[in-house]
Each structure stands twice: as C-alpha cells, then as structure tokens.
C-alpha cells in the first residue's frame, strides 16, 4: 500500500506562478518560461506513489527539482498545484496544527549539511527535535540514547558536534531524524557532502538499518551509483522539472526510457548492478534418488550439456553430475548416481552482482547454481552470459547526449 501519493505536482517559483501554466501547456521549455515570465519551473507535473517500507530514490542533475519535490512532501515548500497525500491525507490542505502533527509523528528529514547545532553535544542535538515536539524530558533522553546507539555513536553522547568528523556528524543527523521513530524518513543528499569512502560506508549502514527498521525512505541524490545501490525504485528527474522514468534499478538499467537516462547510465558499471537473477536460465536437472545414470546421460544428450544439477523432489540442490562419470556408472549397471555425485560445487544467490560472480565463473567449469536460502535451485548462470554482460552491450549502442543540453 502506498504511504505517499503525489499527483500532478507543480512548483513554480516567482511572482506570478500561474502565468507559467499556459506556457507549459504550449510546451515551452523551462528556459523560455523563465525568460518570458520570470518564473522558474521547478516541478512540472510530477506524479508518483511510494510504497510502505521502500527506499524511493529521486535522482537528477543539480537544479532538476529534487530538493523541491522532497520539500513538498513535508510542505517545507508549498506546491503551486497538485496533491501530496500522506496515508491518504492531503498535506497541501492541512492547517498548521495538522501539519505540525504529521511532521512530529510521521516524518523526519536528514539534510546534506547535517543541520546540527555545532556547539552542542550529540545528546543535545538528538534530543532537540524531541524537545520541539514537546516530549517530556526523561523520555526524550531515553529516546535519544536509543537513536544514538542505533547509528553506532554509543559513547559519543557528550561529544561536541564540531569535534566530530563529517561522517559522524551525519550519523547524528540520522539519529536525530530517527529519534521520534518516524514512519517516513526524508533524506536530501544526505551523504553527498561526505568523502567517498565514508559515503559508501554510510550507504551500507543505511541499508543495514533499513533491514531492521523498515521505514519508508525518500532519498535524494544526483549520483546514479548511489541511487542504484540504495533504491528499491528510482525516479529520474530531467532538467525541466519533469519525472522522466520511474523503475527498479534493473528496469532503469535494462530499459532506459530515453537518451537522458541513457546518458546517465554511460557512467555506470552495469556489472555491479545487474544480478544473477537477471541472467540466470532454467536449469537442466535430474531428480534424485528417482533418476539414475541412464536418465542423466539421456537428459544431457538431449540438451547438449556435459553436467547436470541433481535436486530432490523439493528442488533442493544436492549436487552436480558429470557426463563421463555417468557413462561409467551406466556401463557398470549402477542404478544410482550417488557414487559420482559431486556435492562440493560453486553456488551463488540471486542478488549477487555479475562483478562478484565473475571470478568464480572464470574458474568453475560448469554453470553456477543460483539457490535461495533453503538451497532450492532457482536457476543457473552460464559462464558465457556473465562474460557477455561484462564485455557486452558496449557504449556505442547508446547515442550520447550532453545532460546539460537535454531538457525533459
Ligand atoms: P535540485 O535539488 O535538483 O538541485 P532544486 O529543487 O533545488 O533542484 O531546484 C529546482 C529549480 O528551482 C532550479 O532551477 C532552482 O534554481 C529553482 N529554485 C529552487 N529554489 C528556489 C527558490 N527558492 N526560488 C527560486 N527558484 C528556486
């Protein structure tokens, strides 16, 4: 069920925003509208819904309207037109009191530049938001301690913010946002100011936290790698304030909607994002103990394989058999493959990236078995399909356009 539902959202900055609409309808660009009316089209007819517990990433170049969108979600910015429903209630129509209640209980925001009080302690900063919400003193101390622990800053409660590194400061920002246990976390370029290594670490930690907390997270970034790593779904904004495409990382990568999205993708290492599940095929199998060497040889012959995976009647993977061994068993009139069943084989999971599969694929002389957590065989990945992806679809098949020239 969606928690946030945005419909036909517009934000026009300027003196007479309504003047921009007829021109937008005529198809004039953001640049032309600015020239003619002095108004800036920051969001142009955005509609999307965000599911409970998903990480929804809004990505685009600087100036594409991302911050404006996220600020319309908690009405730090008033939309010019459109609706923003939070759990079915339109936030655009709320009075001050209702709005405060939603902000207090339902959502918190984490900012790029942390937005902390530099000369105060970690504890004080995390409690601050709770204090504003009118939460009683001992409860707020307790909640702050819990949130600080959650982001791994236990022991730093009394440190001053300005004594901390950027990464630690942003942890405090995150702790402050988490302290009132909001359902929705709005993160505006929250990791963009951090050094690359710290940034990667924070991304990993956010994913770990999310696995425990199951919040609904709206995450803004201009970085596609970050978007692909964090997003359950990604909305890509173009330069004209329009949303160009919404999809899973896989969909964005494999079916980019237009040249703007393709231009973004040119800089991405696809192998880090495409997973085993995307390239696996149906496996050829025998079911043991029912099937013996005879069935194995016949099946291999029929499908042109030199190996087969053996599963039990629940499709649980038991091992692999090789054609030469099966022929030998057959000649010895054996009824079972067991004597030659190889149990020590290379395995992988559906969400393993191709980049991570490659080293194994290069040494294994048979397809890799893709299994779930119960060892059920889901599919197999052939060496050739991995190599095709790694060296495959070259940049030449994509016509590059300059992102800055493109206007959606
Ligand atoms: P992003 O977050 O993608 O960098 P923004 O949402 O900050 O983009 O900005 C979208 C557009 O709106 C830009 O053209 C920006 O110049 C303009 N804009 C943002 N805030 C204001 C404002 N307060 N007044 C006028 N124009 C603004």
Describe the structure.
- The protein is α/β, with parallel strands linked by helices and 408 residues long.
- It contains 16 helices and 16 strands.
- It has a 6-stranded mixed β-sheet, sandwiched between helices.
- A hairpin with a 5-residue loop joins β15 (368-371) and β16 (377-381).
- The radius of gyration is 27 Å and the shape is elongated.
- It starts with a strand and ends in a 17-residue tail after the last helix.
- The structure holds adenosine-5'-diphosphate.
- Residues 13, 40, 42, 60, 62-68 line the site of adenosine-5'-diphosphate.
What are the key terms here?
408 residues; alpha/beta; six-stranded mixed beta sheet; four-stranded antiparallel beta sheet; binds adenosine-5'-diphosphate
What layout of secondary structure does this protein have?
Blueprint: E1 2-13, H1 20-25, H2 30-37, E2 40-51, E3 55-60, H3 66-73, E4 81-86, E5 89-90, H4 96-105, E6 107-110, H5 122-132, H6 137-150, H7 166-178, E7 184-188, H8 196-213, E8 216-221, H9 224-230, E9 233-237, E10 243-247, H10 249-254, H11 259-265, H12 276-279, E11 285-287, H13 293-303, E12 307-311, E13 317-322, H14 323-331, E14 347-348, H15 354-363, E15 368-371, E16 377-381, H16 383-391
Parallel strand pairs: 3-8, 3-9, 6-7, 7-8, 11-12, 14-15
Antiparallel strand pairs: 1-2, 1-4, 4-5, 9-10, 12-13, 15-16
Helix pairs in contact: 5-6, 5-7, 6-7, 13-14, 15-16
The structure holds adenosine-5'-diphosphate.
